[in-house]
Amino acid sequence: MTKKTIIITGGAGFIGSHVIRLFVNKYPEYKIINLDALTYAGNLENLKDITGAANYGFEKVNIVNAPEVNAVFAKHQPDGIIHLAAESHVDRSITSPLDFVYTNVVGTVNLLNAAKELWKDNYEGKCFHHVSTDEVYGALGTTGFFTEETKYDPHSPYSASKAASDHFVYAYADTYGLPIVLTNCSNNYGPNHFPEKLIPLMIHNVINNKPLPVYGDGKYTRDWLYVIDHARAIDTVFHNGKKGEKYNVGGFNEWQNIDLVHLLCTQMDEKLGREPGTSAKLITFVKDRPGHDLRYAIDATKINTELGWSPSVTFEEGLSKTIDWYLQNTEWLEHVTNGSYQAYYESQYSNSI
Ligand code: NAD
Ligand code: TYD
Q1: Measuring from atom 11 of ligand 2, which residue has the nearest CA?
Q2: What average pLDDT score do residues 30-46 get?
Q3: Where does the record locate the signal sequence feature (predicted)?
C-alpha cells in the first residue's frame, strides 16, 4: 500500500466533487486535499457524505493567488495534483473573458510553478494531471472526430483559456521535465451539475414550468458522458497514463441539443406524472450563442485500447438517474439557484425569452 498525498483542485465543483468522492472511497491509504476557492460554482454540500472521512481535507484557496498556493503545497507536500479548478461556462466567458484568463491560465501556471518547485529534486512517483476539454479542438462539421492529434483551434474565450492552460502544461513538461498527463473530455452530465449548463438548466426549468431556452435552431451537437465515468477515466489516467501524454475521453454518445431536450422532456413527464408532451410545450428557440461551435465528437479509442476505460452507463440510464437526483435533491437546487443565480439568469435570458 503506497501512502500518497493528492491535491485535487476544484473539488467542490461538479466534476471535482465526483473525483474527490471516488478517490476518498477507493484509496483510504491516500490523503486527499480539496483545494477550492468556493466560487459561485463551488459548493461543499456536494461533498457532505465524505466531509468527515479520515483521509479528506479541505483548503479554501484561490489558485490565482500564488503565495496561497505555494503555502498549501509546502504544508501538504503533495505527490500528485489533479487540476480541475476552472471557470467552466462558455456563456459566462463571453461576458467576462478576463475571469477565465486569471483562473484558467494564471491559476494553472501558479499550480505548475508550485509543483515544479516542490518536486524539483525528484520527479519520481509524481504526477500533475491537467483536466481539460474537447472544446480546445474547435468545432467539427457534420462528420469526423477529435483525436489526440487534432490541432488546437479554440473559438470561445473559455476554450481559448483552456487551450492556453494545456499549452502551459506541455511547456512545463518540455522545458522542465515536469511529469504530466492530460485528459480532454467531452460534455459531462450528472448529479451536482450547476444549473447554468444545458441539462441541469432544462431539468430545473421543467420542474418550475419555465420556458426551455434552446439556442439557435437546436441542431448543435455535443457528445455527452456521465460524470462518474469521467471520474473513472481520471482515476485510470492519473494512475496508468503515460507521462507526457494526453487522452481524449468521451461517451461515444452524440446528441443534437433539440433531440436531447425532447428525450429529457419525455423522461420528466413520465417521472412527474404529467401528460406526454406537456414539458416539450415549454421549448422556446432563442437567440443563438455568438461563435457557437456546431459539433463536438470525441474519438476515445486511445484511452479505451491502451488503458481499458470505457463508459459504464447508456445515456438513457444516465439521464434518468440524473433527473431522479434533481427530483430528490430539491433543497440543493434551491440553495444553488438562490441569490446570484437569479441575476445571472435574468441577464443571460431576459432578452431572449
Ligand atoms: P465547475 O464550474 O462546476 O466547478 C469549478 C470549481 O472550481 C468550483 O468548485 C469552483 O469553486 C472552483 N474554482 C473556480 N475558480 C477557482 C479559483 N480561482 N481558485 C480555486 N478554485 C476555483 O466546473 P466543472 O464542470 O466541474 O469542470 C471541472 C473541470 O473540468 C474544468 O477544468 C473544466 O474545464 C473541465 N471540463 C468540464 C467539462 C464539463 O462538461 N463540465 C467537460 C470537460 C472538461
Ligand atoms: P453547455 O451546457 O453550456 O456546454 P458547452 O457550451 O460547453 O458545450 O451547452 C451545451 C449545448 O447546449 C451548446 O450547444 C449550447 C446549448 N445550450 C442551449 O441551447 N440553451 C442553453 O440555455 C444552454 C445553457 C446551452
Answers
A1: 198
A2: 97
A3: none
- Separation of alpha carbons 133 and 155, rounded Å: 13
Task: Break the chain into its structural domains and give their ranges.
Answer: 5-189+224-252+297-313
Listed residue (81, 64, 106, 111) closest to 16, CA to CA? 81
User: What is the distance between the alpha carbons of residues 30 and 180, in angstroms, rounded to a whole number?
Assistant: 19
pLDDT band (50, 70, 90) for residue 1: low
- Tell how far the Cα of 42 is from the centroid of ligand 1, in angstroms: 8
For residue range 176-227, what is the model confidence (pLDDT) as tens digits? 999 999 999 999 999 999 999 999 999 999 999 999 999 999 999 999 999 9
* Ligand 1 center to 280 CA (angstroms): 30
Q: By the 8 A CB rule, do 255 and 222 touch?
A: yes
Q: Which is the closest atom of ligand 1 to the Cα of 17?
A: 26
DSSP secondary structure string, 257-308? HHHHHHHHHHHHHHHHTPPTTTGGGGEEEEPPPTT---B--B--HHHHHHH-
The CATH code that applies to domain 5-189+224-252+297-313 is 3.40.50.720
Rounded average pLDDT over 112-134: 97
* pLDDT in the model for residue 121: 84
Instruction: Please indicate whether residue 64, judged by its CB atom, sits closer than 6 Å to ligand 1.
Output: yes
For atom 12 of ligand 2, which residue has the closest CA?
Answer: 198
* Active-site annotation holder among 79, 134, 196, 254: 134
